[in-house]
Amino acid sequence: MSEKPRHAESSASAPSEPTVRFEELPLHPSLHAGAREMGYHAATPIQSRAIPEAVLGRDLVATAQTGTGKTAAFLLPILERTLDLPPGKIYALVLTPTRELALQAEEFLRKLGRYTHRKGAAVYGGVGLEPQIQAVRGGAEIVVATPGRLLDLMERGHLDWRDLKVLVLDEADRMLDMGFLPDVRRILQALPRERQTMLFSATMPPEVVALAREFLRSPKMVHVDPTTVAAVGVSHLALPVPSHLKAELLRELLRDETMTSVLVFARTKHRANRLAQQLNRWSIPAGVIHGNRSQNQRIQALEGFRGGSHRLLVATDIAARGIDVEGVSHVVNFDVPHEPEVYIHRVGRTARAQRRGDAFTLVSPDEEGDLTRIERLLGFEVPRAKIPGFDYSATAPAGGAPREGGGRSGFAGGRPGGGRFRGRGRAPGRGPRRGPSPGSRPGPRRFGRPHGPP
């Protein structure tokens, strides 16, 4: 990050650091018990660096990508710091940009704090006010909220901040990208000045730096390298395919029974809907989640995915940071994202908290330029492979396939105008081929030896 909040201290990340066992973190035995039941054994870098500072009550600015364990990195210190306080008062507020993240954090809070007496409440839009009012007024000590709905409750006089000890701004960059800065400022100005504030963000654009300078006091800086996070535990594989055959290739991939829990990312809401409909027509149960779905539809899709009633969930990037499902075996990029950082967010949905997972990218010729930029961020070239037995020669309908529809499965084309580099060869100006970074894995054995573009 080029700028730092005033008086901030720097905590540089070492090239390699010893693994910290979760039980070594300075937490109450009841919290260690809850963490063990959630499967936490070795602390992730963000947890090992942030938790010891946070439990001391220090302000904190942490930059870490999705999938690094940051939710536990702020919830456990909140629970630790409020463990012995009397019940029935609001001691902590977690502000987060989306309903999915609010529900996720509230669920983590319930599980991590199962052996404590702390109560949490999730406050978010898209559902009725009354149940949330009752939850807040029924003795919740930790409130997890989206900014708009929280302001509704504040304006109606349902929240008392006099005993607040801890504020967390989660996914701060995304919160500001979504236009929440005025709401966030109004909320922060209404809170007690004497409090601990922790800010977590995937990136640190100037607006986030300015917010930290204004509202944090001499924060401790914690940084986790995003390229390392993307590589550890994830097997990256690119599957070159004509645009109009992407859905058919995905269908072929799903014959692999090891693909038990698959998160598929499409570029637009329309493409996500059409892909889910096509998969269901093929008797492959798939849920869909994006910004136009109602809250009930989102919850049903997520719960069906978690519960195994459908092994596929098709999503757009609006949900990339808002989905947390244990045991996602595969992430499939049905469309290559235009921004390399989006790829990091997507693949972070698998290999959660140092587990293993696979990331497949279906790349058409006009998406090669986007994939090249992703490889530059990752620091290595993603292996290419062909699926044995798949017919790559099938043609699009006469007259050419439209970019956002048509084709044998109703899919074709990348972004209008195509990428900067076309074809499947190496892109102009590209550096020398490099091997995988430490922690990355070659493509799955099922597809044979990974090789270059056909």
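Above is the first protein from milestone M3; the second protein from the same milestone is given next.
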Amino acid sequence: MYLEDSPKGLPSDAVDKLRAMLTFLQDMQDPERLRAFPLWKVHQLTGDRKGFWSLQVTRNWRLTFQIKDGEIRDVDYEDYH
């Protein structure tokens, strides 16, 4: 979706929120700024996913990513159940 600006294969109720999240991440300087969006239920993952961040898109779906060397990496849209 991000590289080709195509929502193909994504649920229509998630597209606008995903676009907003990806746009914010693209320009983000400080990950703590994510907490300004309480509806995104931002949190860092633990255990074998330590170092990843999670943003809630819909009830079961999350946008997850890592921040390494100030760069957003390993972005994924995943069902967490």
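Note on the second protein: Residues 1-29+56-81 form one domain.
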